[in-house]
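Standup notes, protein team

Yesterday: finished cleaning the Marinobacter halophilus set.
Today: TonB-dependent receptor structure.
Blockers: none.

Input for TonB-dependent receptor:
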Amino acid sequence: MTRLSKTSLVLALSGFALSGQAQTVHELEELVVSASGVEQKLTDAPASITVIRKEDLDKKPYATLLDAVRDVEGVDVGETTDKTGQGGISIRGMGADYTLILIDGKRQNNIGDIYPNNFGGNQFNHIPPKEMIERIEIIRGPASTLYGADALGGVINIITKKIGDTWAGSLSHSRTHESNDDFGNDDTTEFTVTGPLIKNRLGLGVRGSLYNRDASQPQYEPGIDPNGNPVPRELGFGSGGRTVDNENVNLGIKLDYRMTDNQDLTLDYETSRQTYDNEPADGNNPLGTTDSVSRLPYAGYALEQEFTRKQASIRHHGQWGFANSDIFLHHITTSNDGRTLPLTALERLQYQQLDNDGASDADIEAAFLPRPERVLETRQTTLNAKFDSLVGDHLLVYGAEYVDAEMEDGAFGMTGSGFSDGKTQPHRQWAAFMEDNWEITRQFTLTGGVRYDHHNIFDGHVSPRLYGNWDVTPEWSVKGGVSTGYKAPKASDLYPGITGFGRQGTLPFVGTPDLEPETSVNSEIAVYYRHPEGHNANLTVFSNQFRDKIESGGSILHCDDANATPGDCANLAPEWNQLLGDGQTFSQLVNVDKAEINGLEFAGRYWILDSLSIRANYTYTDAEIKSGDNKGAPLAGTAKHMANATLDWQVTPAFNTYLTSEFRSKRNTSTPRGWDNSIDYPEFYKDYTILHLGAQYAVNEFLTLTARVNNLLDEDFTSYETVYTTEDGGVTYEPNYIDDYNVKAKARNYWLSATLSF
């Protein structure tokens, strides 16, 4: 039986079984499309894949993509949080920059850093409402043959629902209520409406969501120094746990047009907006220094931060007998509004002179305020064409992709004395790819693939892969292979000049035009077990050899510096050297040569009764830089040990309850700035386990109620240790803080949700 007919049979059986009794559902195998671009059984897919179904999403709080994937093996959402309290998604220890996000196969990642100064978690918030999602597929490990850049760590593909032949919709509202008033509550409202405008010809889908989060102001318990004096400490923003008022709005519309019996055309438009309050309070600037006379020369932020994304696509599906086609044109624009341009070097010199001369606030304001807007925007158009053909025992998947994009940043045009408007960094890349899924026997399939990428700055690069799937018995399967990854530097990293600022707009960062693309060679082997009663388990061992990893840590002198080396210096403008003086270095990114990631993943589910099951997973990750100045250092902040477990009980057909746990251990620390080097800083943060208790009740066929207690045992993530030092014989003491946890997660809270379906 060919792979295509196998898939058709599974689809037919799935449709039949789902119309039967609920207790048989867990015996069916998942179908996935992300690994090869065609529908396959999970165990037949040439990659390590996890599927999150809509019914699983419905049971837990969902405000960002992190909420959906946090308990998946190999996935870490706790490495850090940004200034707005948003986290990132790291797969197999690679960091958030190496996770490719797709919506129905369409790329969502930005080609440059438009969230500078620690705002990067916002990229995971531009997602469809939960009510529009059919399932989420997660590929752990590189998938560069089909998807190219950004997929070195893995791929998350959000697959939305198709428009049906009858009108249907849903309306849901959820609220998280905090038991500790230091943390802010949040509310989410979502809706979907889908149905035929012209039966069997034209369908319409409309979707939307509104998310509101109140500010959080968690407090540390004050310390007591050796003299008995209280030592207060304030939490910072982001990983410090403090957040500001935040609103996210998402709206979208889809039209499905059935051109013929074997051709479909889909048009889709979506807009998403996130806003964050940056209004100063009690002398505090929450997210960044707002522009005002009292804060000069520090500058760079308006009173409100807004992150927007608009995207539109047209897509054609065709079935031609000899092949199936999937062709789409997709445009996406992402903007970061609310940032302003810092003072130029010449303005800084002028400010110093006015300040020394005792100028009035009015004179200073007239000279330097308001600041010009700093444009931060990426514009990206992608044309993708993919085909699949069945030729004998070969299922061929082949196609091409062209990406035409650019990043605009007002800082790109910044010189010593002024600005040059409209400075952009282009990013153009085309690729051709092909995969052959060769069913050598009914039990063994070999997948070979190759992708050729050509970047407008770099030469072409070939990324091959080879993967095998062996059904040893009806219960046991073995699969594994070797793949390669390739990722060109971001457009912002390559710009030959100023690319941003640190120290609240007073110290420039510079690009590195000679950065090399990052590459990797990755191998894995996995064993899968499926019991006829629905029990299942899988074990995967993986190893990634990483070259030319791009990291911060480089520094370069100004070309006007007396000690600068010609050809190895930053040519920014003489005013910067006049302002900052000789010896001032500018930060830039560098290739660190080699890194290695080794790990193990386990996942399984056991049905204790037809209505009671336990599922669990465990991940071990060891990621280390193998050469360069940071040799021996961890590659990222992923915990070495991660485990999740859920006891799930379907009490009645209408009522479900579950208890889930999260365990994290051996997460590397980083020594904070200003740390007293005479004191040893711990290598790891503290281990922790948190529990969540949830329940769901279907009142009738239209109304479903869901509730969950998060952080059931009220684990305190604000705890810390203080080490005191003295330089005056104990008259006064200087506190040195050691945080127990890298992220200040919320205290116990209660999530309630109601969904009305019609």
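Follow-up from PR in the comments: The first strand starts at residue 31 and ends at 32.
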